[in-house]
Design brief:
It contains 13 helices and no strands. The longest helix has about 40 residues. It has one domain. By secondary structure, the chain is mostly helical.
């Protein structure tokens, strides 16, 4: 049974990826490859700026993550930290499964520099802070959309319900962190008592409880580092908004910085689809076209914006893949010297 479920899950992911690629191809063909190329050509030198800005954003992510290690990082030089972050981000391009694999690879690559007792919690804390900052960004984008864009009655109602739920979760999370309440763990245990979810939750509960405990301990033991890491995550969000503004500026789309802020906030909603669609291929591009039309910009501009951002992500993913190969080779060489028997380079 477990093997059958695994095969079904893999098959579903391949099918979702195929549908995403088909959707992307359809969007490109319907828009017109030549029109898209003209838009990309209009960006021109701006792509180099976008790629460089992406590198700065990854540096900020690395900095925020290093703040959560809570140990002596003298044995972990900045170049290695940045390379490890690139590897994690590269694998994260594959969707939800890739993000989990990326975090595991990050921990594995740190074995020689950082104790596991610090590496494992830091991954959970960094992920929690990043998700929280993204949620706040999403909430702000939806609220701004309701104020600025013409939204139908039913869509407005759904948006208000969604915003209210997000705000409640954020407030509850803030209070629980301040008071040291382990609400996520208690909620997981309550769900685990439901017969239908008992088996599934029994596998997830230790991870949920451990992650929440690490986050609470980090806040109470190192409040300055917690605040600094949180602010760095917001700086990363600001760079994402700047990226949207620069691309639209090079394409000649007259959208002010607040408009780019709203576009980025709504893009976070689209990224939720990436949990089901590996790489969010097709759905990300289609979603950007829909968002652009909300603000009176052509779908072509929205599609080109998405393709430029994906090109930037693929560039740094490629660099991350190179880093992974380079970082793996010395480890394999060391294992061969110490132990002649063949052994795996890394174990997750």
């Amino acid at each position: 049974m477990p093997q059958t479920k695994s095969i079904t899950k893999i098959g579903f992911r391949f099918f979702a990826a195929f549908l995403g690629l088909a959707l992307l191809a359809m969007l490109v063909l319907r828009t017109g490859p030549q029109i898209i190329w003209n838009q990309v050509h209009a960006v021109g030198f701006g792509m180099a700026v976008i790629v460089a800005l992406g590198g700065v954003a990854l540096f900020i992510r690395t900095w925020a993550w290093r703040m959560t290690l809570m140990c002596d990082t003298a044995a972990l030089p900045w170049p290695r930290s940045f390379a490890v972050c690139l590897v994690s981000e590269a694998l994260g391009q594959l969707g939800a499964g890739g993000k989990v694999l990326g975090e595991g690879m990050r921990i594995s690559l740190l074995r020689s520099s950082v104790p596991l007792a610090n590496a494992i919690p830091s991954a959970a804390i960094d992920g929690g802070l990043h998700v929280t900052s993204s949620t706040i960004m999403t909430l702000s984008g939806i609220l701004a959309t309701l104020s600025l864009a013409p939204v139908s009655g039913k869509l407005r109602l759904f948006a208000v319900i969604f915003v209210t739920a997000l705000m409640a979760v954020l407030v509850l999370a803030g209070v629980s962190i301040g008071k040291g309440w382990e609400l996520m763990g208690k909620t997981a245990r309550a769900i685990g008592h439901v017969p239908r979810f008992q088996s599934w939750m029994s596998r997830k509960q230790p991870v949920i409880e451990s992650s929440e405990r690490n986050l609470l301990n980090f806040f109470h033991q190192a409040p300055a580092a917690f605040c600094a890491a949180f602010l760095l995550n917001f700086l990363w969000q600001a760079l994402a908004i700047l990226e949207v503004y620069i691309i639209l500026h090079f394409m000649g789309a007259r959208i002010a910085f607040p408009g780019a802020f709203v576009l980025e906030g709504l893009t976070k909603v689209i990224n939720l689809v990436g949990l089901l669609n590996p790489g969010n291929v097709g759905t990300y591009e289609g979603g950007n076209m829909m968002i652009a039309k909300l603000f009176g910009v052509s779908g072509t501009v929205g599609l080109t914006l998405a393709l430029c951002r994906r090109a930037r992500a693929l560039f740094w993913a490629f660099i991350g893949a190179i880093c992974l190969m380079l970082m793996s080779k010395p480890t394999a060489h060391t294992n061969d010297v110490v132990n002649p028997e063949p052994a795996p380079v890394m174990q997750l």
